[in-house]
Amino acid sequence: MIRVNGKPMEWREGLTFQDIYSFLGYTIRSPKVITRVNNQVIQRNERDGFTLPDEAEVEVVNILCGG
Questions:
Q1: In this structure, is residue 27 part of a structural domain?
Q2: Residues 6+ apart with CB under 8 A from 25
Q3: For residue range 2-50, what is the model confidence (pLDDT) as tens digits?
Q4: Do the domain assignments include residue 62?
Q5: 59 within domain boundaries
Q6: With 19 labelled, which of 13, 49, 62, 64 sits at a CA distance of 20 to 30 A?
Q7: Residue 60: inside a domain, yes or no?
Q8: Which of 6, 19, 57 is nearest to 36 (CA)?
Q9: Cα gap 25→20, rounded to integer Å
Q10: What are the angstrom distances between the C-alpha of 44 and each of 1, 7, 10, 30, 33?
Q11: What's the domain range around 41?
Q12: How many other C-beta atoms can be found within 10 angstroms of the C-beta atom of residue 15?
């Protein structure tokens, strides 16, 4: 089990950030967000190969654009 923005999510081997984005309701492949796993910022170019550990605390924060 992991927690995503404070909500429990079932963990499984090979869990990806795309799985997390789907869990949060995102419909685009690579949303403009900041991601942290166990208080470590995961850069956009590191996300595809990142292994999400069981019992991780994951935070996904939208980057708002506007004008």
A1: yes
A2: none
A3: 999 999 999 999 999 999 999 999 988 778 899 999 999 999 999 988 9
A4: no
A5: no
A6: 64
A7: no
A8: 57
A9: 9
A10: 23, 22, 23, 9, 9
A11: 2-50
A12: 20
DSSP for 24-67 reads: TT--SSS-SEEEEETTEEE-GGGSTTPPPPTT-EEEEEE-----
pLDDT of residue 65: 66
**Residues across the chain:** 67
Lookup: tokens for 36: 């942290």
Instruction: Identify the sign of the CA torsion 49, 27, 36, 1.
Output: negative
Structure tokens at 14: 């090979």
Residue 24 amino acid letter:
L
Which tokens go with 39? 């208080």
CA atoms within 13 A on the CB side of 20: 32
Tokens 């499984």, residue?
Answer: 12
